Amino acid sequence: MIQRSTLRAQIADALRDEVLAGRLPAGRGFTVKEIAEQYGVSATPVREALVDLSAQGLLDVEQHRGFRVHVFTPADYRAMVQARALVAEGVFRGPGGPDRPAPGDGRLVSVRRRAEAAERAARTGDLDVLIGYDLRFWRELGELMGNPYITEFLDRLRVQCWVFAVPHLRERPGLRELLWTGYRELAEAVGRGDDTAAGRLVAACDERCLALVEKLE
């Protein structure tokens, strides 16, 4: 039997994927009952999952009415990218830099695999594949830095940025030319402990993100 806490996480993950894919678009409202019927489960784990997603900034709670997918504005997106950039600058340029994985660390192998898959998807503009690998790549890369609080913060911001960007990237395929493709180069820079190169590559990624919102405006 699936434990309720596990079911809660599974529902939260499934709904987050729906939001990221645009199948639950920004501004879409729904009730606990609607989602419970959709997944064939009781209301309690659904309500808990929706509260979790609200805490992540993906949903808004509407008093006595249910929930609504949060609408991120271009200003929100720009602020999130800038926040990411400030944290990354601290990681790669702060006193002593991050803790580095040993050259034989098995986690580097996984990061490189994610990097290769994400880069292929970015070059072909395959959003459905890219989003999943992009999030895993950055999450695993963050774990190599050894600070779970930074990893969690950046993962949340990256999810929110994708929620804003995906509808625009689907509606205007030409914008996909702005997708960043430096995953493998960044993985190698982190693997060899080259903070300067890693910082430069992360900054280039953020510049691409800001270029996207400038195109929209």
TrEMBL record:
Residues 5-72 form the HTH gntR-type domain. GO terms for molecular function: DNA binding; DNA-binding transcription factor activity. InterPro entries: GntR_C, TF_FadR/GntR_C, Tscrpt_reg_HTH_GntR, WH-like_DNA-bd_sf, WH_DNA-bd_sf. SMART domains: HTH_GNTR. Keywords: DNA-binding, Transcription, Transcription regulation. It comes from Streptomyces pini. Transmembrane segments: none annotated. Gene3D superfamilies: GntR ligand-binding domain-like, Winged helix-like DNA-binding domain superfamily/Winged helix DNA-binding domain. Pfam families: FCD, GntR. This is DNA-binding transcriptional regulator, GntR family.
